[in-house]
């Protein structure tokens, strides 16, 4: 009688489980209180009050009770910006819309908090769960192309390269955004569950609006493939995808409008000078200032100098993996597969569609030392593509 599970699958699952338990233990044992945490907590609390003084007092009270007095004092006096927000409730309240622009992230953490969990722990746990889910889904996907043990080892190397031991320790929306987006493409491409896959893809825009840069070309590629296959109007999937494309674009503009999003204001606040009172920002766009920021921040990405970008971000490594994976396809085959194929979207297309979002972040938000937290789902797609290319010529094992 054939055993229900092979030795390979049992060992692979055990190896991955041990790693994920270690990851969870480390994240919960050594959490880091980053400054963004304060504004996300305020975003959650703002559902109950719009009074700036009350919101300010409630937010800092939660932080003081959770972190202890010594750490709290260090936190609120960490710089002029932190001091300014601590001393002025109105300036503190002016920051909140920059954080509420991730409504699904705030909602998800709020559900944990309203179930009785401390709000700070709720946000931290959301980061951890997201990282664990990304690893589990990636393992499931990779095991279609490689053995279970190899898949587990690849996931571990991916997690180390993607800073998975850092991301669950801090309160950021990027891990949750990565999970929602990665679930979407996994359901679409690997599980062939179009309706649910499209739903998660649209929801990813509600976690981080910049995901629209990936969603539009993805949905357009799916529709184009249907056209090439002669089933543009005969396939219900075309209508689902068109609806998802429209919903994503409408969501993007609606969310940005409601929360008064301004790219230049955020760019200036992040890279040029902190703005304690966001509502009073009135500095016009300056091409010189913009170019100066790019000139300072982009070159280190392409310099293999220890102590600069090569060890501060894994971005160049994944670009190299993508380039090496492409070399396994001839130039004609690559162009034909990406532009003229009638097949459904697969790992090669997903990896190629990562390029627009890489370019957009480099040009519009060059936070180079923190690229890994933005690019986690795209690193995962590149990993799937690489494994599919170098194991049985991309043929599925199942």
Give a topology summary.
Layout: H1 7-29, H2 36-45, H3 52-67, H4 69-76, H5 80-87, H6 89-94, H7 97-100, H8 103-114, H9 119-142, H10 148-161, H11 174-190, H12 194-207, H13 212-228, H14 236-258, H15 263-271, H16 287-297, H17 309-312, H18 315-326, H19 331-340, H20 347-364, H21 371-390
Helix pairs in contact: 1-9, 1-10, 2-3, 3-4, 8-9, 8-12, 9-10, 9-11, 9-21, 11-12, 11-21, 12-14, 13-14, 13-20, 18-21, 20-21
Could you write a compact summary of the structure shown?
The chain is mainly alpha-helical. Helix content is 70%, strand content 0%.
Q: Would you write up a description of this structure?
A:
The chain has 398 residues and is mainly α. Helix content is 70%, strand content 0%. It has 21 helices and no strands. Helix 8 (103-114) packs across helix 12 (194-207) and helix 13 (212-228) packs antiparallel against helix 14. The longest helix has 24 residues, at 119-142. The two termini are 21 Å apart.
Beta percentage is under 5%
**Average of pLDDT:** 88
Structural class: mainly alpha
Cα(first) to Cα(last) distance is: 21 Å
Q: What are the secondary-structure elements, in order, as H or E? A: HHHHHHHHHHHHHHHHHHHHH
Sheet having the most strands: none
Q: Helix fraction?
A: over 70%
Low-confidence runs of at least 5 consecutive residues? 306-310, 393-398
- Name the overall outline: globular
Cα-atom radius of gyration: 22 Å
Number of helices: 21
How many β-strand stretches?
0
